[in-house]
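Re: your question from the hallway

Yes, I did run it. Sequences:
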Amino acid sequence: MPLKAELQSADAIAHVHMGILPTPFHSRTSRLNLNQQWSEWNGFASAVYFADSHLEYFATRNTCGVFDVSPMRKYRFKGADAAAMLDRMVTRDVIAQAVDTVAYNVWCTDGGQVVDDGTIFRLGDDEFMLCCADPCYDWFCLSAVGFDEVQISEISEDVAALSLQGPTSCALLKALGFAGIEQCKPFQIMRFAFGTGQLMISRTGYTGDLGYELWINPQDAEPLWDELFDKGRLYGIQPMGDESLEMARVEAGFLAPDVDFHGALHTVERGHDHTPLELGLGWILNFRKPHFSGRAALLAQKESGNYRRLLKLDIEGNKPAENSILYADKKCGTEIGYVTSAMWSPVVKANIAYGLVEAKYFEGPIWAEIYHQKELRWLRKVARCTRVAKPFWSPERAKATPPPDC
Amino acid sequence: MSKAPDIIIIGGGHNGLVCAAYLAKAGRQVLVLEAASQAGGLGATREFAPGFRASVAHTLPQLRRQLVDELELERHGFSLAQEALATVALSADGRHISVAGGELHGASAADSKAYLEYARLMQTFAKAIDPFWRKRPPVPGNGNFRDIATLGQFGWKLRTLGRTDMREMMRMIALPARDLMDEYFESPLLKAALSWDANVGSKLAPRSPNNALIALLYRMSGDLTGGLPMAAGGTGGLMNAMAAAAQGYGAEVRLGSPVARVIVEQGQAVGVELSDGEMIRAQKIVSNADPKTSFFKLLGARHLDIQFTHRIKRLRTDGYVAKLHLALNRLPAFTGLAPPRGRLILAPTMQFIENAYDAAKYGGYARELPMEVLLPSLDDSSLAPAGQHVLSAQVQYAPYGVKGGWDTHRDTFLENTLASLARYAPDIRDCVVASELLTPVDLEQQFGVTGGHWHHGEFALDNWWMNRPTYGASQYRTPVPGFYLCGAGAHPGGGIMGAAGSNAARAILEEK
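Structure:
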């Protein structure tokens, strides 16, 4: 008897109740999510992968991938004091930030410990949008104490968003008729008419490659997706899930909350939170600014030089150093830290990781104790780690304006 | 002032004047900027009706001989109208109990005996805690030698109370006043009067845990006469002497000069801008204003860290005491007390006080109001025309945030107050020729103190010592270099004492 598999189409099971909310793109993403593999992100369904995470990963490195970032938390800050209030809350200069630009920022406790990170979009002189992975409304309200002229509203569900990332992303947007998008510089914002209103495009992303984030009224979300995938076939478009995005962000040198660091308001034990200096974010601490929350504590830490370092590591061999403990010597006699993220990078062709290393040891030799499995048998190896200064993956096209082939 | 000032002090209330006097005495060029046309803040003596004068703060339980001597206040015109006012638990039927000279008069034998033990214990505690009112509070764990020494001394003082008294102090430290009184005394009238100082000025009542013992001990921190003194010319007499002393040491006191904001450059306080736009620069800016005014209105949250700002915002600053001044054409007849000399407490029971508090807790006020009454003109004829008198009363509880606003309640509250007074002095209404009722909102508006709060922020355990006004600003320095606190919101707190001002001056002088 000939065997025949009767596969149900993905959308045939899309109605199964998941206990999590659909994003404005859910009607489209659920159709493509072959195994209905979802994770929960701020209460919303986020695809783990659609068909194959490696396929999606290679799409974002070689053509383009689309990730639904609608579950991201978005807040609007409006009013005469909005710039001053944000400027005091975050570490970079918000007053000087130009209208229609985006800046990556962190915000800290009085003690200089990172509460969270995110991007600030300056939409006007007195209007900003702030995006972060996790809810932060309470901290923003706390930060607004003493600033009379600022209204903060959560607009997460008023704005649908897609991240379009990869070398063909610009060409695809151009083909969709967004004239002049090739002139959009990194961290710049452009606006286009679309559907019933406006599409805001920012040249931002979480993959380290050429890419854009598309911000749209939820009622225009589905047409946007349809147009992207209709035109995008020629540009190798693929939907992306969490797994492929995670690979891309590690290569790009970006931090993930609750992976590489814990927000200071969510830790209990001493030393389980982190300062921006420890996380390698010294470059966004603007000490020329007379004040921001945590400045005094961070300046003291910077001047002491005595703090842990989250290092980018290139590790010998090809076994990912997941969950590894780090040592100062090959015999694993002196424990000096631990790995927060690790992977074999297909595009860099290197065994890469982030490791948090104690202050005393970050300049000396670093060894990772790696456990890996071969046919169910656990093996142990101790691999030499080399510090890497720059992001593992940072192609020229990510910075070029106009990008190549556009 | 010919020379630019080294130090600007914002606010010429008594702590500002004391701070200025000490700094000027040490050779600093000091400029005091006072918004009102008269120095002294809540201590100033003001004419509230033609020929009738009174000061909001009316007695001096916390004043120290050391301060009077060091600033040569007597040479600058300070004298007393009364050395020791008795505290009288007034009874409507004339069967009063008074506290004078360290003992009770008119009380039962049991209460009189219990009072001796109560007074002994309180004096023992007061002595143990005494040095710390006039010391910079420590910051635990900062490694500073003086702070470690202060903490060590505190531990030593407690330990040397002896095992029994130390345990009692630890047990009593957060006890509600009601429990404390019930443990010692039987007379409801006496208990009400002795519990008065445990709560007055804060949003607390006899049943409230938190600060009763500390407030009672704080009240005992003065040593000028061994009794309850009253300044000649009202408390303003002392204020004028303080201003004269400060000026005598070379400080300039500019009246009618409200400060709009503190100028901050590169994270450092460098001067002030007056509300008329004039800018004055100085190396150090010291604020005698309350913490909320100091940090929010004068400095601005943008110069402060987020969690610190939040702690300042959370300070409880709603005042609950109204001040009543009555101009009287003759001496009213208080039942069973002629002349009505002394600090009269009008509260028959602690429950009576509690009932008034219960109404105020929810934004109302009671029909019958407990109060502390003084007729300062009995001992000081300068306060009223010949043969006439001034009545000065602290009336509880008058919530700052009364529902509907004070404009709609002022008349009723005054009427309730007069009715409450009339139970003890039935002819009071016939004597009144003019009145001034200062609700907490009035105190806020006229004296620039947030919430109209006596202490610039609740005087309570959670805002006490190293937490006053909050950690991060408990040593008179603030997180902004060059900006200091010297007012009642800093340690040790309010009351005409000058300790916050002198402690701040010492902290500033020790810096270089």
